[in-house]
Amino acid sequence: MKWRTYPDxxxxxxxxxxxxxxxxxxxxxxxxxxxxxxxxxxAGTEYAEAxxxxxxxxxxxxxxxxxxxxxxxxxxxxxxxxxxxVSGPGDPVVVNSPVYPPFYPFVRHMxxxxxxxxxxxxxxxxxIALEGAFGRAARGASRNTGRPAYLLCSxxxxxxxxxxxxxxxxxxxxxxxxxxxxxxxxxxAPVVARDASFxxxxxxxxxxxxxxxxxxxxxxxxxxxxxxxxxxxxAAADDLxxxxxxxxxxxxxxxxxxxxxxxxxGGDWLDAVLLGLDDNRRLLARLLAEHLPAVRYVPAEGTxxxxxxxxxxxxxxxxxxxxxxxxxxxxxxxxxxxxGGAGFVxxxxxxxxxxxxxxxxxxxxxxxxxxH
Length: 372
Description:
Helices cover 39% and strands 13% of the residues. It contains 11 helices and 12 strands.
């Protein structure tokens, strides 16, 4: 998708997919399965066991109980299934805009409606906005089934914000006070800068009745090998137990094998990728300061995405459209991410330094052309 959606003269720095060689342990595990003809249905708990061990090593979290997990086709399908467990048709779902665009149609297609709690100007959770949204959600739900929910993105896409333990604890406290159940999309959890620490939502006080979705797909570039895990906090085990059996028929067996191998044996590969991403963040900041100083960019602590504030360019149209038409660089338009996204673009850093350099030079030329 990343490289074939646009014509060959366009540099694609949009969809969240990395330009990296596959981790050797993953390739070996999949090739071994193919050599054996092991291409049947998925079974067992090896994926969950591998994630639990990864969580202990990487996040110092031993609260991931394999018994409170379920395999799902992917994170967004898992989000849908978790929201079905804790909310009803017509109930509100709070999101922190600007946020991953599929949150909006997926929630609406389930018959729920979105309530936005925009992030602060610093890209972090705005607790005044969050409490206001929780209050509106609680009032809106009271006319329906009375089961509002909060769909948390952690680390946050597109800003790359890595929520702190204090922030997550405060959000959990507010959610409990207003009667909202929390579903956390934590797909980018392994992708954090060296000076940042990811905190699982289910590990914070008040997170016991939360539900989380995790996957190896973003960190190891496995989006085409479908598999993810739903994880319940101790007080949400009964909810997860109500997950329909057929949901577990959706993941790919080869996907589960690949994700398990990544979590168990792909740590060195991931560390090398994270070092490269740190370098790319510094490179992008330097290039923008030199060639597009009106674009505001704060290197993020998480994800491999850069959220660029292009409002200072004075463009009359969507910056992403200008960069594509005039510069032949494909980025994500900020307006697709909801309230707070207009005038921004999302750039994918997970590519070579040469491509990032070429992209910024093209973007600068596009703006110069527009001005003339």
